[in-house]
Amino acid sequence: MNANANSGLGSLPHGYLLTGEKFSALDYINATFETTSSLEAGLEDFSAKIESQLIDLDTSISNAIQSQSQTHSAATSDIKQAEEAIQSLQVKIQDIAAKADRSEKMVQVICADIRQLDHAKRHLQTTITALKRLHM
User: Fold this and answer.
1) Distance between CA atoms of residues 108 and 106, nearest Å
2) Are 34 and 2 in contact (CB under 8 A)?
């Protein structure tokens, strides 16, 4: 049996089987099994290794798909939570803006009242001063 038959996919570069434009199945078989006797002796082992690699690959793909699905679900949930938080924040901002408007109007009313009281105080002081002068 050839040493390449024991190594699984022979001595060809990694990825060559799937991506090589110049891949030749005949060259690969000849490189893996150099003689007819090595083909007969190592074919079952080689086939079992290929089958095992296919199972591993299927498992890996299945795990990747499942992981991607879970990641997608988590991302969707996170986006929904972020959107809800943004909406809540917008409501709070609108409430704060409304309170600020009410406070500003209240300050204007208070200032108007203070101005009015200030004018009344001046008039009262003027009247008191005039009465004091008359009394003297």
Assistant:
1) 5
2) yes
